[in-house]
């Protein structure tokens, strides 16, 4: 019988400790490790390393989450600084703070390199409010980058992102009107006109709801759009429903316009639907 130098138990044989295992144990704080130990100690060492590694990973994840939380809170100050700079016509400072804000969103929502921030990232957060902020940021950047021709690519990028985000916000009609007016004085009017085309293409119509409530920006219409974009689009069955809806809904919308007396009943049915899906 041989006594294990680590635990002191009498055993029939000792086993060499892997150098990598020794290194990892030393990193976790264990010292004076013998080169050979019993089988029980080998198992105990491996459990210790596994537990220690898990703890390190948990600490790293907590630190990462804390960092994201701090960044998320700091975004408010960046927006305030940028808007103050816009008011004072400090466009360079405004653009810098806006870009920092967008970078924070990329980090918080873990946008991969080469990808772009998408509205779907906000489905679990304060959706409408933050989406509106993002759209307003891209609108300001579009105008800022129009001041210099060397920023034409950045202006186009802002235009593309604005076209994607604006469809989910209540400021859609206001931005469209401003863009139509801006296209007449912009140094890069083709970019603004391209934005108008993209925003019109990106924005699917809720034909029946719009006809029933007689306002594309009605609260009920916006709720149905959110249900479509953040719920139905996330499943194959939901996407099939949307496709069928867009095939038949224009005719129903025309029917409602021809027979306005039907609209109150349709509005009541839609409100009941919103209540069920909310």
**Average of pLDDT:** 84
Radius of gyration (Å): 29 Å
Largest sheet descriptor: 2 strands, antiparallel
Strand arrangement, largest sheet? 1-2
Principal-axis shape equals: elongated
Low-confidence stretches: none
Helix proportion of residues, in percent? 55-70%
Please give the alpha-carbon distance between the first and last residues. 72 Å
Output the number of helix runs. 11
Helix and strand content put the structural class at mainly alpha
Task: Sketch the topology as an H/E string, one letter per element.
Answer: EEEHEHHHHHHHHHH
Question: How many runs of DSSP E, i.e. beta strands?
Answer: 4
Percent of residues in β-strands: under 5%
Descriptive account of the structure:
By secondary structure, the protein is mostly helical. Among the domains are: 45 residues, no CATH class; 75 residues, no CATH class. 69% of the residues lie in helices and 3% in strands. The protein has 11 helices and 4 strands; from the N terminus they run βββαβαααααααααα. The strands form 2 sheets. A two-stranded antiparallel ribbon has the order 1-2. Helix 9 packs across helix 11. The longest helix has 49 residues. The protein is elongated, with a radius of gyration of 29 Å. The protein starts with a strand and ends with a helix. The mean pLDDT is 84.
């Amino acid at each position: 019988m041989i006594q294990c130098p680590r635990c002191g138990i009498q055993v029939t044989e000792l086993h060499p400790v892997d150098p990598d295992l020794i290194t990892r144990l030393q990193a976790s704080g264990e010292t004076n490790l013998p080169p050979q130990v019993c089988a029980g100690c080998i198992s105990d060492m491996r459990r210790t390393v596994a537990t220690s590694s898990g703890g390190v990973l948990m600490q790293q994840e907590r630190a990462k989450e804390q960092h994201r939380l701090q960044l998320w809170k700091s975004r408010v100050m960046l927006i305030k600084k940028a808007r103050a700079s816009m008011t004072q016509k400090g466009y360079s400072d405004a653009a810098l703070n806006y870009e920092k804000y967008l970078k924070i969103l990329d980090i918080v929502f873990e946008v991969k390199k080469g990808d772009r921030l998408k509205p779907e990232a906000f489905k679990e957060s304060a959706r409408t409010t933050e989406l509106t902020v993002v759209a307003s940021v891209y609108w300001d950047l579009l105008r800022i980058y129009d001041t210099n021709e060397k920023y034409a690519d950045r202006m186009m990028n802002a235009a593309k992102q604005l076209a994607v985000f604006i469809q989910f916000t209540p400021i859609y009609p206001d931005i469209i009107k401003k863009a139509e007016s801006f296209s007449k004085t912009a140094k890069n009017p083709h970019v603004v006109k391209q934005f108008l085309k993209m925003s019109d293409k990106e924005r699917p119509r809720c034909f029946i709801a719009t006809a029933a409530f007689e306002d594309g920006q009605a609260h009920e219409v916006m709720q149905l759009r959110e249900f479509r974009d953040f719920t139905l689009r996330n499943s194959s069955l939901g996407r099939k429903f949307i496709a069928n809806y867009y095939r038949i809904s224009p005719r129903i919308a025309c029917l409602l316009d021809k027979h306005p007396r039907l609209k109150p009943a349709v509005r009541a049915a839609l409100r009941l639907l919103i209540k069920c899906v909310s």
